Amino acid sequence: MPGKEFWKYKTLDQMSPAEWEALCDGCGRCCLHKLEDRETGEVSYTSVACRLLDIHQCRCTAYAQRFQLIPDCMHLTPALVSKCHWLPPTCAYRRILSGSPLSWWHPLVSGDSGTVHEAGISLRDKAISEAYVDAENLMPYLLPEGAWEGDAEPCTAGRHADGPQQPPISAPEFSDRAE
Q: Which of 12, 45, 111, 139 could make an SS bond with 78 (beta carbons 3.0 to 4.6 A apart)?
């Protein structure tokens, strides 16, 4: 079990595996598909999540086997956090790296794993599994600017058999994976 308030005095590199895992707030945002503009490097988030993510619990359904089942699932390490510009600003790994405190809703601060959901930070019921969409056409699922603020509405696009309820969005050429 991690020591009391370890995140206040340890760097990411100093954390034990148990502390590293405990630092994850369980929001599920890292499991969203992201599109990166090849010209500008700007990352846009979609409301489409990895097929292994339980959208209600915001947890991977095959965490121990995720790298075998999803070959491009990223193994986040302390060395990678600074390179992963696509991590949301609320991400505890990013916040600790930058010297920022954890937010009040973080389970390590609140003592309750439900506060990340209550605060509207998690993806709980706001995303759709890639199993139900055309993963080659993620443009209709782009999230609006500010979706990280906890006020994003639940995703309803693509939940009907006849497909998305909005036309595809015209945008610059994107790659399908932010590095």
A: 12
